[in-house]
Amino acid sequence: MSLSQNDVKKVSLLARLLLTEEELTTMTGQMSDIVGYVEQLGELDTTDVEPMAHAVEQFNVFAADEVAPSLPRDEALANAPKRDDECFRVPAVLGE
């Protein structure tokens, strides 16, 4: 499956990226390649592969959770293009 430039424009708008025409052309090709690779993975026969959450079995590789001061809400929302009281307003992502 190859993506259209309109598909890439929609993704770039969701990511709040402004792409030039040259970047749009480049990204369309690159993202189409990525989707192609994912489709290839979907064609693999994995009937004899044990289900797993991670490719490598490792446990406790992260630091322990600790409460720390966070960015104040007003400061976090200060540069938001759109906000709704205490939340960021973003375009709908799931469904039209």
From TrEMBL:
Domain of life: Bacteria
Enzyme class: ligase
GO molecular function: asparaginyl-tRNA synthase (glutamine-hydrolyzing) activity; ATP binding; glutaminyl-tRNA synthase (glutamine-hydrolyzing) activity; transferase activity
Pfam families: GatC (PF02686)
Gene3D superfamilies: Glu-tRNAGln amidotransferase C subunit, N-terminal domain
EC number annotated for this UniProt entry: 6.3.5.-
Entry keyword annotation includes Transcription: no
One record GO biological process: regulation of translational fidelity
Function: Allows the formation of correctly charged Asn-tRNA(Asn) or Gln-tRNA(Gln) through the transamidation of misacylated Asp-tRNA(Asn) or Glu-tRNA(Gln) in organisms which lack either or both of asparaginyl-tRNA or glutaminyl-tRNA synthetases. The reaction takes place in the presence of glutamine and ATP through an activated phospho-Asp-tRNA(Asn) or phospho-Glu-tRNA(Gln).
Known partners and oligomeric status: Heterotrimer of A, B and C subunits.
Annotated PANTHER family: GLUTAMYL-TRNA(GLN) AMIDOTRANSFERASE SUBUNIT C, MITOCHONDRIAL
Family statement drawn from the similarity comment of this UniProt entry: Belongs to the GatC family.
Protein known as: Aspartyl/glutamyl-tRNA(Asn/Gln) amidotransferase subunit C
Annotated source species: Blastopirellula retiformator
Gene: gatC
